[in-house]
Structures are given as structure tokens and as C-alpha cells.
Amino acid sequence: MVDAPVLTGRRARVQEARAPRHRSERAEPSFSGTFQALGELAYSGAQVSASAIDLDSDERIVSIDDRIVLPTASVGKILLLIEVSARLSEQAVPAIEVLAKTSKDAVGDSGLWRHLQARSLPLADVATLVGATSDNLATNVLLREVGLDAVRARTEDLGLLRTALLDLVRDTRGPDDAPQLSVGSTAELSWLFAALARGQVVDALTSSRVLGWLSLNTDLSMVASAFGVDPLSHRGVDHGLQLVNKTGTDVGVRSEAGILRGPRRGIAYAVSVQFSDRSIAARLRVLEALRVTGFDLLEYVH
């Protein structure tokens, strides 16, 4: 049963009017809400990690246990997209190369391709499905095409030591399988998104292509829920805001990394939480804390 007082309190906090503050009247954003919200989760037994980097100054604005390694679920798929994009830039594979789905690639949960009649799609379209809906079937097809070893080698070349895509997507994980789809540190993930924003991941074309795929992401349920942009259409600038993000969801895992640009400045961010997903109230507390983090990021850039 859902803890009614907890949910009632949450609704009241979310619906409470946030007093507008003019730029000339406010101090520099302190991210105090983020520290408090994530601190409360940590105090309740969750593992939390967060990092944020100013895109102009390269200053690390937020650092909360940002070097610990936590499960990041589908966030690690960005490493696969980087490898695919690099191969396209190197012309190692054509964007129109047709990839077919097979029974060995089949997996449930997120994505659209398993619901479509099309048996094959161009490689670039398969990558688009991963960026837009974190498509699990499309992920496995791409991994079969490029190989997990190549993704790992590319990850190491980028200098990432605590972040990795460990396995293909599986409906169930046995004792011989990697325990998680991916892991990462928020320090490395925020750096990675900052590098993508600057065109420094492999090269400018590779970085731009990855950001293009991720700009279609429809999951704005976590940090990005505070930004007020259209989940199905936010590739352009909306009220001065531009968002590119990747999320990861698993039992007891919520993770998000991205870039938010606003009228004042831009920021690269990453937040991961591993928690006991024992009730809907526990899950909502995590989502609320991520939303609070989003409000602080919004205040920083707007």
C-alpha cells in the first residue's frame, strides 16, 4: 500500500508555487536543494552521486560522491552510439547499411522496434531508435554489428576508467552474465557530455551525430522533468532552453546525464541513484529528488 501522507506531502511540495526571482535580486545559484534532496536519499540508505560542469568555464559546479561507480542502466548505451558514430565518420560502415533483427536480439521493455513490422532498418535508423526510445532490441542489433569489445576499446580510448557498457540487454541476468547493463561515475559522465557539447568526442562530426540521436530522447521523467520542455519535440530552443539527455532505468536504479543550455549559460550534468525499490513511495522520493536537482540546474542556466 502507498504511504498516503508521503504522497500527499510530495504533491504539496511539487505544486507549491516557486517564487520568481529577478536576476538582479538573486544570489548565484547554490544547488542547496540538490544537496538536501540527495542527502535525504543517502540518509535513508540510497547511494547517490551527482556532478555538474559549467560548459563555458569548465568549472565543476556540483560534486557529490561523483567518483563512485554506480549502476547506470541504459545511460551506458551512449558508449555504443559513440562507437557507431565514429565508424560512420571513418566511413567504416555506411549509414544506409541495412541491419536485420533476429530472434537472438529479441528483448522486452523499452523501445519501439519490437512492436514494428519492419524486419530490417538502415544502421542510422537503428541508432536513432536507441537515442529516441532507448530501444533495447535496436541496442542488441547494433552490438551484434560493432561488437562489445570495440565499444570497450573506444571507451578506454576516451579515458573513461569508471564508466562502461558491460553487456548486451537481457530480460534476465544469470550468474554468468554481467550483473548490470552499464556502470559509471557521474564525474566521467558529466565530462563526457561536456566533451560532446564541445565536439571533442573523437571529432566534431562524431560528437554532433551522437547529440543528434540523443536530442530525440523521449524520457524526461527524472532530472529533465523540471525543465518544462515537450518530451516528444525538444530539438530546438524552447523558452531559451535546449536539452540533450540520456536516462537509465532499472529496478532500484535511476540515472540521467545530459546537457542543458539556457539564456545565461550551459551546463553538463549527471546524477545516479541506487536505492531499495520496495514501494511506489520510495520510488517517488527518488524521482522527486531528481526533479529538485533539475530545478537547480534550470535556475543556474536561466
Tag the structure with descriptive keywords.
Beta-lactam_cat; 302 residues; 18% strand; three-stranded antiparallel β-sheet; globular; alpha+beta; five-stranded antiparallel β-sheet; Beta-lactam/transpept-like; single chain; Beta-lactamase
List the helices and strands and how they pair.
Elements (H helix, E strand, L loop, with lengths): L3 H12 L16 H12 L3 E8 L5 E5 L5 E2 L5 H13 L8 E3 L19 E3 H11 L2 H11 L1 H10 L6 E2 L16 E3 L1 H12 L6 H11 L27 E9 L2 E9 L4 E9 L5 H22 L1
Antiparallel strand pairs: 1-2, 1-10, 3-7, 4-5, 6-7, 8-9, 9-10
- By DSSP, the count of extended strands is 10
| Coarse shape | globular
Unreliable parts:
1-8, 10-25
| Average pLDDT number | 91
User: How many discrete structural domains?
Assistant: 1
Tell me the span between the first and last alpha carbons: 39 Å
Q: What is the gyration radius calculated from CA atoms?
A: 19 Å
Q: Describe the sheet with the most strands.
A: 5 strands, antiparallel
Please report the number of helical segments.
9
CATH level-two architecture: 3-Layer(aba) Sandwich
Organism: Homoserinibacter gongjuensis
InterPro entries: Beta-lactam/transpept-like, Beta-lactam_cat, Beta-lactam_class-A
Protein name: Beta-lactamase class A catalytic domain-containing protein
Pfam family, one: Beta-lactamase2
